[in-house]
Amino acid sequence: MSEWDIPTADAAPDTTEDASVPPAEDGASETAAEQTEEKGKKYDTPALDKEGFLDKAKAAGWTDKTAYNYEEFQRLGGENADFHAASKVYEWKDEYGDVAPEVPELEAVLFGGEFQMRKGDHINNLDIPVSIEGPVKVDPVRDFQTAGLHPVMTANIKLCGYTETTPVQAYTIPAVLQGMDVVAIAQTGTGKTAGYLIPVLSRLMGKAKKLTAPKPNTSDPSYNPRYNKVRAEPLVVIVVPTRELAMQVFDEARRCCYRSMLRPCVVYGGLPMPMTIDELGKGCDILIATPGRLCDLMDKPQVLTMSRVKYTIIDEADEMLQADWEEELRKIMSGGDTNEDADHIYMMFSATFPKGAREMARQYMAKDYFRIKVGRAGQAHTNIRQSVVYVDQNQKREAVFDLLFQMEPGRTLIFCNSKPTVDLLDDFLYNRGLPTTSIHSDRNQREREDAIRAFRTGKAPILIATGVSARGWDVAGVKHVINYDLPSGMYGGINEYIHRIGRTARIGHQGLATSFFNDRNEDIQQELVNVLIECECEVPDFLEHLKPEEGSKIEFDDDTDEEVEEEDGAAADGDGDAGGIAVAAGAWGAAPADEGADAGGFAADAGAGGFAADEAAPVAAAGW
Ligand SMILES: Nc1ncnc2c1ncn2[C@@H]1O[C@H](COP(=O)(O)OP(=O)(O)OP(=O)(O)O)[C@@H](O)[C@H]1O
Q1: CB 3.0 to 4.6 Å from 391: which of 231, 499, 516, 525, for a disulfide?
Q2: Phi, psi (5° rounding) for residue 311?
Q3: What count of other Cβ atoms lies within 10 Å of the Cβ of residue 60?
Q4: Cβ atoms within 10 Å, residue 160
């Protein structure tokens, strides 16, 4: 095997025998045919019957395909069955002191799952220089034990198996503990969720008794949701753009809140409203929500009040700052009965943060908010081996079928740009004996939850999805992401590409991302080449002409902010103080710059709190 942890199949299947070239799906023009000959390959799949394809898939090591079980769906109550939102959380009783006892059964569910992600062997490849800007210096924390966290939180982190902070966590933890508004940008799969949950929840743990609203004892057998329910008065609101991400953040919050007084709840579209109201009625300190459902609930003051909220966190913030969500976001940030006191802290997180979104974010944040950027906004990392192959439009189905036999079977995520393409490709691969499932926004909530569960557990290791639904997904063991359709401009462009490929190679694992390119994708070809070069991946021959000249720098459209330069100028005219600290901190895990550096590996001396030797590096250079 190469230095990559991505095993290929022993031998690529022989696709030349019994070849029958499938007819073009649409009337391919002569030009397209010529281009296919020039750049792309014709995929000649053996003509097999259904059984033949099934045998081929099994021989390659793919598991049996399992049809979606509609009978089981009905048996479980169809749309009224229990949803992920009803998953068990720690039940706090009044008689506990500050720390509640362990509950081994729940602990096994929360922390012992075989499908929970553990950090991989290539975590050092995430050692990417961090730049920060803020009103005060922040000492990065390298390990959780010395981070000043509540003992219950430290214990929960240990149960999660986290030993060291990731670069983004190293700065978010102390910044939040100091009570600052935060914007953080860091690569996909680098622990941004824990980066906000850990410090926020830890900070609340010490004060929960004082701050939280009274909750009923739901573990009491006499608890009756009809009579005993309370109004939800969350202290923390976390807004995420998709239902699946909401469930995932809820799971991480369930782990972080274990043995604490804080009760997490999740609400999202597709959940029956009575069930949502019942769950909130059990008491809610940490509310994870999709924006539409949250706004609906804000209109029901007997169910939810935002008057106690101390922390509002917007995950996948650049997505949430788009015009489509403007109304909802405005309402969530300052509408209704939202607590607008100065003690309300706002945070935004994402792997991509285009300049326009960064400008918009500023209007919601405190004047002196803390900014953390790991590498460049929208940068991928080198644990993802990106490959771009030319595939003519009418060859894509055969190409993806062929590709699935080139790799050792493993969890594979295939992205298409439209819902009909997802459905058609799922049918096509399923009928060829492959264990597929699919997800998009036209599926009902039960189907969506089932599809994700089947993919997570490996029952259906090939998941076909539209890109939009996949932001933030964190599924252990995803070896391969395939962009069946590249996300050209109208489908989110290069930022969408970064989020999609980021479903593999998370937290120190490695993975492969293969993208099918053809003439329809010319609008992102330059940015794609830039990303390939930045991540030290091969640029294919047909894009070679877009490589920058030897010795010249890659230009990323988005990497400088005029607003920051303006801000610098303004500060210079004013009190001469640039409004705080703006530095390029050292590479994570880099060799200490001098003997005084701590073992944490920051490229500066410990006393300087991890700032790099070139501490005076201006913000503009850091690319804010
Ligand atoms: N310090 C840590 N050590 C080991 N694993 C961690 C650590 N922090 C987080 N993780 C795990 O890393 C995985 C990825 O984290 P997370 O989903 O928060 O990434 P992310 O940066 O939000 O990615 P994306 O931008 O794709 O949403 C999760 O499974 C999480 O449990």
Answers
A1: 516
A2: -135, 125
A3: 18
A4: 20
- Nearest-angstrom CA–CA distance, 279 and 276: 5
Give, using CA atoms, the residue closest to atom 1 of ligand 1. Answer: 165
Indicate the DSSP class of residue 178: T
Q: Atom 29 of ligand 1 has which residue's CA nearest to it?
A: 117
**Contact criterion met (CB below 8 Å) for 205 and 150:** yes
The string of DSSP letters for 250-290 reads HHHHHHHTTTSS--EEEE-TTS-HHHHHHHHHT--SEEEE-
Rg of the chain (C-alpha set): 25
Q: Could you give phi then psi for residue 244, rounded to 5 degrees?
A: -65, -40
Task: Give the residue whose CA is nearest to atom 27 of ligand 1.
Answer: 472
- In angstroms, the CA 600 to CA 592 distance is 8
CA distances from 233 to 94, 286, 298 (A): 18, 9, 11
Residue 349 CA to residue 361 CA, distance in Å, equals: 10
Ligand 1 centre and the CA of 508: distance in Å?
10
Q: Which two tokens stand for residue 90?
A: 């720690």
CA of 492 to the centre of ligand 1 (A): 23
Please tell me the distance between residue 162's alpha carbon and the centre of ligand 1 in angstroms: 10
Structure tokens belonging to residue 247: 């469930």
What 3-state class would DSSP assign to 230? coil
194 CA distance to ligand 1 middle (Å): 7
Task: Give pTM, 2 decimals.
Answer: 0.86
Find the distance separating the first CA and the last CA of the chain, reported in whole Å: 41
- Cβ atoms of residues 411 and 479 within 8 Å: yes
- What DSSP state is assigned to residue 350? E
How far from the centroid of its chain's Cα atoms is residue 546's Cα? 30
Q: Which residues line ligand 1 (CB under 6 A)?
A: 117, 119, 162, 164-166, 169, 186, 188-194, 351, 472, 474, 502, 506-507
Mean pLDDT per 10-residue section of the chain, whose length is 624 residues: 55 34 37 50 80 90 77 60 82 77 92 85 93 92 95 96 96 96 96 98 91 87 87 97 93 96 94 92 97 96 96 94 89 86 92 89 90 93 96 95 93 96 96 94 85 90 86 93 94 94 96 96 95 96 91 72 40 35 50 31 28 29 36
* Residue 461 tokens, joined: 């290791």
Relative orientation angle of helices 104-111 and 243-256, to the nearest 10 degrees: 140
Q: Which of 307, 317, 304, 305 is nearest to 346 (CA)?
A: 317
| DSSP summary character for residue 4 | S
Q: Any alpha helices (H) in 535-606, and if so which ranges? A: 562-573
